[in-house]
Amino acid sequence: MSYLIPTIVLVVLIVLLARRLRGRRTRRPLRLDAPVPTFQVVALGQQGSGKTLLLASMYHSLRVPADQRYYLTAPHDDVLRLNQWFDQMADTASPAWPHGTSKGEGRLFTFTVKTRTTGTISTIFHLNYLEYAGELLTEVQEPGSTVKDELFAQIRSADALIGVIDGYGIRQYLDGHPEGTARLAETLNALVPAITEASCPVNFVITKWDLLADLHPDEDTRLSMVRNLLTSNAQFRALVNLHSAGRVVRLIPVSAVGPGFARIGSTGEIVKRPRAELHPTNVDLPLSVVVPDLFEQVEARLTEETRVALRAEVRRRTLMEPLDAVASLASFAGQTAGRVVMAAFGGSAVALVGDSLLGLFLDSRMEGTRERRTGLDRELSEAERQLDQFRLARQRVLQDMHAKVIALESRLPHSRLTDGR
Fold first, then answer.
1. What is the DSSP letter of 247?
2. β-pairing, 120-133 with 160-165?
3. What's the Cα-to-Cα distance from 361 to each of 193, 345, 386, rounded to whole Å?
4. How many Cα neighbours within 13 Å face the side chain of 288?
5. 10 Å Cβ neighbour count for 214?
6. How far apart are CA 292 and CA 352, in angstroms?
7. What is the mean pLDDT of residues 204-226?
8. Which 3 state secondary structure label does DSSP give 50?
9. Which residue from 176, 416, 255, 253 is spatially nearest to 184, judged by alpha carbons?
10. Phi/psi at 235 (5° precision)
11. Which of 44, 237, 278, 359 is the most exposed place for a label (fewest CB within 10 A)?
12. What is the phi/psi pair of residue 255, to 5°?
């Protein structure tokens, strides 16, 4: 009879192992088609400030994964419009520039951030880019109009704001032209009170940066001169002081056309140089910093206790199998720390997507990428392998975006107006 005991134990172990494997195969199905977050970006600027050229050049710069592992796509009709604007801008045989936003006009573009890894294209998140003419903020609307109320609602729920400041107006101001003084005052009077209403990160984008190239050979020194000019305005200075901690506020100098493409004509208009070529400058940054800045600002709002719990969850996820990471995310979302993290996004519209946003946030906090052993890969189902590749792709995209933030602050230290930490 003694020889039966090991046999019974062996049978029990085999049954338990079979049940475990069967349980693994019958876990809830993976939702690889689950919705990804959509971040709301609102851009404001006066007529003629360069919003249209900036938008066309931003898309053109990010439509292929050239200097980063991610790229933008958009609906076909929007792509046609953006390409037409860019081609018209680049055409030196024609003096015309693309038509900008009219007073009271708003335009919405939906961009999708994608990446390609191991032959698979992954959608990481969406960006709703809503552009408004700044005159909506300063001019009296017709009785019964709700346009201004709708605009302020969009501003309050935005995940990022872009305030467009005309570099040509700054050029005129520095050259002593009265038009420049009036133009800059109008711009700041329109932008600053509206932006003060929001709590999301803000990028003040200085357009037509090429027109300021002769201020100083060093770009950061030029930016410091513009920064000093802007902070000499009491409203702008108050905005920076009000949000000196806990909010990210930047200055980003951009040129949709790049150096040497345009010049100021004899009558003060901006004209294209014959046979010049486009070399856009920094136009990838306003959209690339949106998610890193929002996530940095959210983490800055957390208590040290929540940060400790957050770091612990990130460490656990680094070593988890794909299915375990999905289960852990659902569990963390229901814990106090997970709820606090989501609450830190405030009134942000993107927070409505819940676990999808939380997973993106956690993966953005990972350092490096997790490398799997070859033998372990063979144990994963095809669906699990796809999920694992998606997590790694998402992490790499966020690393690329964060690297651009680091490079910007290293190259242009005066671009950061607040601590934001």
1. S
2. unpaired
3. 30, 11, 20
4. 27
5. 9
6. 19
7. 96
8. coil
9. 176
10. -70, -45
11. 237
12. -135, 120
Name the 3-class secondary structure at 259.
Answer: coil
Amino acid at 142: E
The tokens for 57 are 């050049």
The better pLDDT of the pair 114, 371 is held by 114
What is the model's pLDDT at position 365?
87
* Residue pair 253/219 in contact by the 8 Å Cβ criterion: yes
Residue with tokens 């990210």: 248
Looking at the chain, the whole-number percentage of residues with pLDDT higher than 70 is 85
Rounded distance between C-alpha atoms, residue 421 and residue 419, angstroms: 5
Window from 1-10, 73-82, 236-245, 326-335 with minimum mean pLDDT: 1-10
- Return the structure tokens found at 83: 């390409």
C-beta of residue 312 within 8 angstroms of C-beta of residue 304 = no
- Give the span between the Cα atoms of 225 and 251, in whole angstroms: 12
* Under 8 Å between Cβ of 250 and 416: yes
pTM score of the predicted model: 0.86
274 is written with which tokens? 């014959």
Q: Which tokens go with 320?
A: 């988890």
Best CA proximity match to 202, nearest among 87, 15, 30, 41: 41
Q: Where are the beta strands (DSSP E) in 60-172?
A: 70-73, 106-117, 120-133, 160-165
Dihedral of the CA atoms 61, 252, 357, 388 (nearest 10)?
A: 50
Cα distances from 172 to residues 35, 187, 226, 234, 287, in angstroms, run: 47, 14, 12, 20, 28
Q: What percent of the chain has pLDDT over 90?
A: 54
Secondary structure string (H, E, C) spanning 356-398: HHHHHHHHHCCCCCCCCCHHHHHHCCHHHHHHHHHHHHHHHHH
Please give the average per-residue pLDDT across 81-98, as a whole number.
95
d(CA 163, CA 321): 43
